[in-house]
Amino acid sequence: MSKIGKALQGALMSGAVAAALTATSAVTATASAQTVSCGERQAILETLKERYHEGRTAFGITADGRLLEVFSGPSGSWTLLMTRPGGQSCLMSSGEGWRHIIEEKPEDPVA
Q: Which end of the chain is less congested by CB atoms within 10 angstroms, N or C?
């Protein structure tokens, strides 16, 4: 887990945010064996904005209806957040070096 991810996880575990965390907040992510913290969405968004200056960069809906979002900041920090239909949000990953690019779409080979 990156320094930012560890610090964000620590921020989530402290103060008022700790009350929003559920008993299932320590889930192991199978791909990287990172600890995933879950809690109330609004508290997580406030922490990302106020402490890390991260705003939503991209989002999409998964096949099972979960909201997947990328938040990034001017320093290049980034956080991947997943929110279940019931409202619980989980920090899936975080890191540094985020770059926002817009690549040209390839031409449609059928057209």
A: C
Q: Does residue 41 carry a pLDDT above 60?
A: yes
H-assigned helices in the chain: 3-13, 15-20, 41-52
| Best CA proximity match to 14, nearest among 32, 30, 37 | 37
Q: Is the model's pTM score more than 0.90?
A: no
d(CA 7, CA 92): 14
pLDDT band at residue 16, thresholds of 50, 70 and 90? very low
Reduced to 3 states, what is the DSSP secondary structure of residue 17?
helix
Residues in a beta bridge with 69:
59, 81
Q: What angle do CA 5, 42, 40 make, to 5 degrees?
A: 75
